[in-house]
Batch of 2 targets.
Target 1
Amino acid sequence: MVKQVRLIDYPAGRAARDFWSFSGDALPALDENQIKVRIDWVSVDPGMSGWITDKPSYMPPVKPGEVMRAFGVGEVVETRSERFKVGDWVTGFLGLQTEAIFAEKAVRKIDVGQVPPQLFLSGLGMTGYTAYFGMMDIGQPQESDTVVVSAASGAVGGIAAQLAKQAGARVVGIAGGPIKCAYLTDELGLDAAIDYKAGSIGAALDAAVPAGIDLYFDNVGGEILDAVLDRMNYRGRIVVCGSISQYGDFAAARGPAGYMRVVTHSLKMQGFTMRDYMHRVPEAFETLAQGYASGSLKFREHVLEGLETFPDAYEMLFDGRNHGKLLIDIRGDH
Ligand SMILES: NC(=O)c1ccc[n+]([C@@H]2O[C@H](COP(=O)([O-])OP(=O)(O)OC[C@H]3O[C@@H](n4cnc5c(N)ncnc54)[C@H](OP(=O)(O)O)[C@@H]3O)[C@@H](O)[C@H]2O)c1
């Protein structure tokens, strides 16, 4: 029997704990050009909040009753495809489920010979690619830059901050709590860390970046974005990667209060999703894989066990209980 997590209905706000059901189904026989995959790891992402609303987003919503969309990695256990043989490993939107049938075009083959498979959900997957293209292609950090990254000890932020540091910039990370801040300076080697939960973010920025900010990699939006905007230097750049403080009710999300600074200081502010960059994934993969192999890039993971942890896992992202790429190891569910 295959176990799945399904969306019951669209939650009205961010709290979604009661909106999931657990089901068990038998799978049908394979059609031509299909494969059956045993899924071992699934990824829990802030972007899921945009998939469980009926408001238009960058992807179609998951419909009530459907298996929840999630990135995953797994092994091909049965095949009627010439592209895949039993034992191949794949990644893609495999969903919150232990096993499923996919069209051969719906998944991507991965080589897990050298690295653990779950890395394709963190540093060597969409998380790493997002950090790479957001920081290196849009942000383009320079040696002379002061760079600020929010949610800096998180999955995307941690990699983006390290990439900016490797480019020679002075890098300041913003995170919640002393443990995450110590991680930023002691483990990732950032120049300073700001605990935004410890007091005034404006005062902390004034102390950490007295000469202003040239590049801001924004993962959170809201008040932190306002405080950073007030301190952006002339011709500064803001990479809008995400806005997690505003997730839950996208219709009510508020924009930056200090946006006139964009005009007065000739700032550039650009958002993106990986849809813009899928054709360049090999470039990101090469840099990230080299960084991982040499030890110059650290990919932190936060691992939970079992599909039943998902309702709590999803909420962890919004109250900061995760520290690193949030993954669920579902091997015990098979
Ligand atoms: N553009 C894209 O294609 C793309 C792709 C992937 C992810 N993203 C975005 O990147 C951001 C980070 O995602 P991730 O997967 O790397 O997750 P993550 O950073 O590992 O986890 C989310 C973290 O956000 C912080 N946070 C939550 N609520 C906050 C708030 N109100 N104010 C400040 N910080 C808050 C928490 O850390 P603290 O303990 O530090 O508060 C939490 O641990 C999200 O905005 C996500 O939507 C964008």
Target 2
Amino acid sequence: MRLQDKVVLLTAAAGAGIGQATARVMAREGASIVITDIHEDRARAVAAEIASESGVRTLGLKCDVTSAVDVKNAVDETLGAFGRIDVLFNNAGTNRPTQVADITDEVWDLVIATSLTGTFYCCRAVVPAMRKQNGGRIISVTSVAGFRGLAGGHAHYAAAKAGVMAFTRCLAMEVAPYRITANTIAPSFIFNEFIPHIYPQDEIDRMFEEIPYPRKGTPEDVANAALFLASDEGEYMTGQTLCVTGGSWMR
Ligand SMILES: NC(=O)c1ccc[n+]([C@@H]2O[C@H](COP(=O)([O-])OP(=O)(O)OC[C@H]3O[C@@H](n4cnc5c(N)ncnc54)[C@H](O)[C@@H]3O)[C@@H](O)[C@H]2O)c1
């Protein structure tokens, strides 16, 4: 029960991937869980499932992270229900693989707004409560795409994720005096059932082939890294990026 009495707010946590897996891992450790997602019905359903499976308090809320109003409402509702937010898990991100010459303004804006601006909105909304509590953990999901050159049409996505890492380092400096940490987790390819709707099969094959470790990475692998950063054991780590890559990225 490493997160007993903690309140965790997660974005994009009603899908098949990292967000929901992290919510479940943290619920098993005793945390109260706020599932937010752009899809309200799924957010409520996942919150109800986790409550009945883990016996923790949960809340399911609509929150499109590209809307500052949605983000503020979700944070206010969480504070109204639980009185505090100990962990913010910024999971929302989206990719529309496209070569630079073909990226429309709309696609650029969507990719940047979901990862980078959404992370900013959530941090801006949560930090005042964490400062009052004199403590908190902010964990944002980035990607090894933020470090590397990739040919598969990832320039906008890579820029957004690198932006979140740079943003997080400066945020970590600002909030450290309040015992708030801010870190990112950079996964490599983590399969879930929706991935084939986003990436062509040859890109999926390429992403698997470059992983030296002899199994596929799972959303739970990322969730376990998040649990460490959220737990007492992760207290002295801030401004960092934890890479969960099966060795496909080393530095
Ligand atoms: N899956 C991978 O291979 C991989 C690799 C590196 C990084 N990441 C990053 O990990 C994070 C999670 O990705 P995942 O693939 O595990 O999927 P996920 O299931 O964790 O997230 C998908 C969810 O995001 C929600 N969502 C989409 N846009 C939203 C918005 N504007 N506001 C709120 N919710 C929104 C969807 O409704 C869906 O429920 C993303 O930031 C992604 O960029 C994923």
